[in-house]
Fold this sequence. Notes:
Layout: E1 2-6, H1 13-25, E2 30-33, H2 50-60, E3 65-71, H3 78-92, E4 96-100, H4 119-138, E5 141-145, E6 150-155, E7 168-171, H5 175-184, E8 187-190, H6 202-222, E9 231-235, H7 249-262, E10 266-270, H8 282-292
Parallel strand pairs: 1-2, 1-10, 2-3, 3-4, 4-7, 7-8, 8-9, 9-10
Antiparallel strand pairs: 5-6
Amino acid sequence: MRLSTVILPVHRWGEGQKIWRRAEELGFHAAYTYDHLSWRSFREKTWFGAIPTLTAAAVATETMRLGTLVTSPNFRHPVTLAKELISLDDISGGRVTLGIGAGGNGFDATALGQDPWTPRERADRFGEFVPLLDRLLTEGAVSQQGAFYTAQEARNIPGCVQSPRLPFAVAATGPRGLRLAARYGQAWVTTGDPKLFEEGTPEQSVEALRGQIGRLGTACEETGRDVAELDKILLTAFTPDRNRPLESVDAFVDFAGRHRDLGFTELVVHWPIPDSDFDTDPVVFERIATEALGRLG
């Protein structure tokens, strides 16, 4: 099992670069950031763009992987996104993972003036977005006329540093998204079952996650792929456990062990942000980063 972190883009770079470097010093496998225009309680607060932040982080670090959790079609187009990702992959020396999902009904959904898409519309767009992005990152020139996205002789030379392209970590729980993960993903991402967040129990969450992994396995079977080929990533803090696993090393070891037994290969924890849902004791957080996985049986 690997341990990674999410560093929200809420810091001016004079301070932010220290955090990204510290994450690498602590030995995190990867450091991700959210790809939103704004997000929940941070809407009226500092919030920077994901791609410029990751570009700066790529220069500030040397070995740690970097990525988004997650990018969505809400305000992205595959053609322009592909160009930015190829550039970021080059600057980072091939250390980028693209977390990608169908999006939701948050602030991003209406920031460009559109009405929020229904779940079906989001799934339809996602189903076109991912295959086109895959082509754009693996072919030198792409033309495609889709229902939602068009590419006209889009050039992406020289392509990604990583071959055949940078990895996709596909966030999905529904059947269509899971099929996309099975076909195009190098990893699968979940935050658990959102219906359990307010009233559910950790035990119910474990069973829900077991079901999600089972459905991912079915989707892989249908596409002729071994589910073991996909990394399985849990973005923490959105299950009924919330931030409690970060209260002590022992609590995190217990949490990590239960989810490793389900088949998860990577856990992602939020870097502490005071006076927020991610307010965690930084001393305990650093102990978890450096000690917890070594204590897993």
